[in-house]
Amino acid sequence: METRICSFFLGAMLISASNLAFAQADNRASVQNVIEPDLKRRDINESSIDTEDFEIGVFAGVISIEDFSSSSLVGAQLTYHINEDFFVEASYGQATAGETSFELLSGGAPFLTEDEREYSFYDLSLGYNLNGEVFLSSDWIFNSATYFTLGAGSTEFGGDNRFTVSVGAGYRLLLTDYFAVHVGVKDHIFNSEIIGEEKTTHNIEYGLGATFFF
Amino acid sequence: MDSMAKWIALIGLVLMYSTANAEAQFPEVQVVEPYIDMRTGPAVGYPIFHVAEKGEWISILKRRTSWFKVRTEKGKEGWVSLDNLRLTVSSAGEPVQIEDGSFSSYQNRDFELGASGGSLEGVPSLSIYGAWVVTENLAAEVSYSQALGDFSENQFGLLSVTHTTFPEWRLSPYFRLGFGQIKTKPRANLVQSGEETRTNDLLVGGIGVRYYLAQNFVVKFEYQNLLALTERDENEELEEWKLGFAVFF
Hints:
The structure holds 2 protein chains of 2 kinds. Chain A is an alpha+beta fold.
């Protein structure tokens, strides 16, 4: 009788143990399945990484053309980011100059023809970023940069191209990783003899822009 | 009850698999150092807000200059520096190798884009150029320049071949031969005195030095002698000095 009871318990224990072991093995298999599905990792290859060092965009604003009042301005720019601090930028803009105070007051003959009033410029600049962040609220945090540029180019105005130095400062707010809005000021400095003696003119541009990184 | 749990597990598994597949379009690397820093932006001044731990897999979403936007398995996104990314390994356990422009990549470059500024016969000149590097010595180049003087404006386009004599040197001399066209336009106030815009063929010879700076940047300094083939008795010889900067790909 005792041996019978013993063997019964032994048998029961064996069965439950094997069941347990089976259940555990089953469990482990499913746990492994959940945690480590047979993923195929895609290995890194330089050419497969999307590089976004270029920035292209348009801007619009106002340019105050020395002696010729202020005009609206539109333009485009292309930027190459060399590293986190420096960038090079090519920009082009155009405006139509207004009239001088003299032309307005005297009502006499205009200084410039319609064609000569077309004002356009290009410049190549080197820029420097002061990187930062803006906290609009705890959920709205944007990267930004205040930047300074120094460049050279050409301005076509009054029928001539003039060598132009440009000095600028701006602010770039990155709304996403690849879309940014800009606000900036740039002084275009060139020598002009349009209204008489040659002098150095300062033509200050205020602009708002939107750019994409690609 | 049990079968329901299995079904849920199965559906979960399928979902995980499909999202994993959707993300598999980004390359992944595994962290092997104790941790790597993740910053809020692509520059060294941005704060570290998270660390990816040892053993964690991270996906590389994009690159800007020498910073990489990554996503951890838990969905945290941040920027990792190139130096930090080099502390990760691929699925085969190999250290990640990403070139950040090196002298050897400079020697194997295909294209160059650059700009320069200088002086043409004493007036400021600006140029842009693109070059196709055919062999380690020879390159074909297209350039456009504008020189703005008090009396006239010169614009010229050139097609030239350059020969870099010692491509294995960081600082190497090079020579240029080319041809093109030059347009000389008198200033508006001189047009009234009878000057006209002229276009002439142009021959160019040049000598310069180029220096591999760092990453993918080159600095060049060059002297060019330009010969404008005029219709007058004498051809016009122009001299230009310029200092330039280029990026290569």
